[in-house]
Amino acid sequence: MNQITTCNYCECDDLTPILQVTDHSITNEKFELLECFCCGLIHTSPQPSETEIGKYYQSDNYVSHSDTKEGLINKIYHIARKIALNRKASIISDFHKKTSLLDIGCGTGYFAAHMQRRGYTVSVMEPDPGAAEQAKQKLNVDPYTTLEAVQGTYKTITMWHVFEHVLDINKTFEKIESLLDTDGVLVLAVPNPESPDAKLYKENWAAYDVPRHVYHYKKTVIKQIANRYDLKVHSILPMKMDSYYISMLSEKYKGGNILKAIWNGLRSNIKAGKHNTSSLIYIIERK
Ligand SMILES: [Zn+2]
């Protein structure tokens, strides 16, 4: 485990502890959130190394629940996922239609398959062998298993709730920049630690999801990172469904109830407006 003593993005050594958070879904281990005074990046500390991270993913918790309450959360999650899928496709088609698309961290290929059906030439990257195999069957495309291996240039690159899991920010952005076509767009969705539901649930906010989420990105930090790699944030779009799902999980960790979660999700969305919801989508392009 790597104790964080300097910022992994800007190398500043002025890090402030802001919260202690428990791994609620698998190990019950405690982690600290450290915010960099210089750039604002929030780190999970300690961070599991590439070889240690496996044990924090060993669970079916996310999808296969059996009791009613957890089953209900999952049912809602699956309905929301379908609605979200159509919205994702419509956001992308505002920029590029039926062109090349690279989905980084494609999982089982659910989103990539949807885009393939809509006429996009889809490439995918997925490090998990099981998920990559399912994506291969679904897409009839050989997934890349590392980002380094990805070749070519793309009109659209998507990372749906993936970047917060990635250890090396600089290496990742440098590679993404090299893969982006001149008029290409990077669509990056990450949880928003400044959202009203994050402020409300504090250490119980489910989207901290430590230590699987190694960083927690404020808007200013995403803008700085893009800027370092000659990119810029074109626009920020809300993800309103996430506040309900995250509130439900957060209430579960607190021993609260589902009605309270729905109420808090709604309140969070009203307070958040368009640019401060539970998760945000960043549309990033070349300067
Ligand atoms: Zn920093």
From TrEMBL:
<protein>
    <recommendedName>
        <fullName>Methyltransferase</fullName>
    </recommendedName>
</protein>
<dbReference type="GO" id="GO:0016740">
    <property type="term" value="F:transferase activity"/>
</dbReference>
<keyword id="KW-0808">Transferase</keyword>
<dbReference type="Pfam" id="PF13489">
    <property type="entry name" value="Methyltransf_23"/>
</dbReference>
<dbReference type="InterPro" id="IPR029063">
    <property type="entry name" value="SAM-dependent_MTases_sf"/>
</dbReference>
